[in-house]
Amino acid sequence: MPKPLRALVVDDESDVQILFQQRFRREIRKGDIELQFALSGQEALEILKGGAAADVVVVLSDVNMPGMNGLELLGRIKEEFPELEVYMVTAYDDGELKTTALAKGARGYLTKPIDFGTLKEEVFGLA
């Protein structure tokens, strides 16, 4: 059985965890995907430094968070875990922000509300 794809979702809004678990419930049940959640950039770094980086394939991070914002987190991840793919998620479709995120090493830039069909296909490679 192939290893599940592991993703770390970083968002300061706790309801995002419920939303992702609902939208991916079939894939989680089948063992195709495992989701971990962090409520801050600092918590995400602690999870990755705690050994999860070896298993996590992709990070989905909100841009606007208190404390360390998503762009700062992106920079830290790219410094410490350059092999990780990071997608930025934001409610604001801002061209300058998108350009900055991609220049800092983001693999992609997704706007809210998230199109979970596209997310499953393009980010996770699930049909």
TrEMBL record:
SUPFAM superfamilies: CheY-like
Residues where 4-aspartylphosphate is found: 62
Response regulatory domain location: 6-127
Highest rank taxon of the organism: Bacteria
Any one Gene Ontology BP term: phosphorelay signal transduction system
Keywords: Phosphoprotein
Species of provenance: Rubricoccus marinus
Protein name as annotated: Response regulator
Pfam families on file: Response_reg (PF00072)
InterPro entries: Bact_response_regulator (IPR050595), CheY-like_superfamily (IPR011006), Sig_transdc_resp-reg_receiver (IPR001789)
